[in-house]
Amino acid sequence: MEKQSRRGLLKNAAKAAVIATGGAALAGTAKAQVTGKLEKKSYPAKPASEPAQLFSSAVSYGNLLFLAGVGAHFQGTIEEHTKHVLDELEKNLTAAGSSMEKVLKVNVYLNDINDWAKMNTVYGGRWGKIPPVRTTIAPAGGIPGNSLVEIDLIAYI
């Protein structure tokens, strides 16, 4: 096998990119997802006159939306807590111009890892055709506020 120089490798990679994109890169038809200036926004927007918060519930940057963790701070089962949390997240997504179908990444925090199967019975089917990637853990110290589950996520708008 003949050894290629770095320049040869880059040249071949550029040719492969043109083939893979159907020449869109060279023709100038490829477009970025976001145009204009990227800026950080909070949802819902708070007036400057209100005192500063410790964190925002939802922040976007470009077309990415980051939602803070939502828990269920009432007595109930893991199924009731999971449904409540998912319903609240869906409200927050809608208020920011997104939806459950546009969620890319989910982090699930369980107070007890043994609740994993029961949580999944409520969690499944809420995300459209392509579910988001997910990480599920049980933090050693539990979840603040006696919630059985807390979920945060990343979506697009």
Automatic annotation (TrEMBL):
| GO CC terms | cytosol
Mind listing the GO molecular function terms for this protein? deaminase activity
Q: Which residues form a coiled coil?
A: none
Identify its protein family: Belongs to the RutC family.
What is the official name of this protein in its record? Answer: Enamine deaminase RidA (YjgF/YER057c/UK114 family)
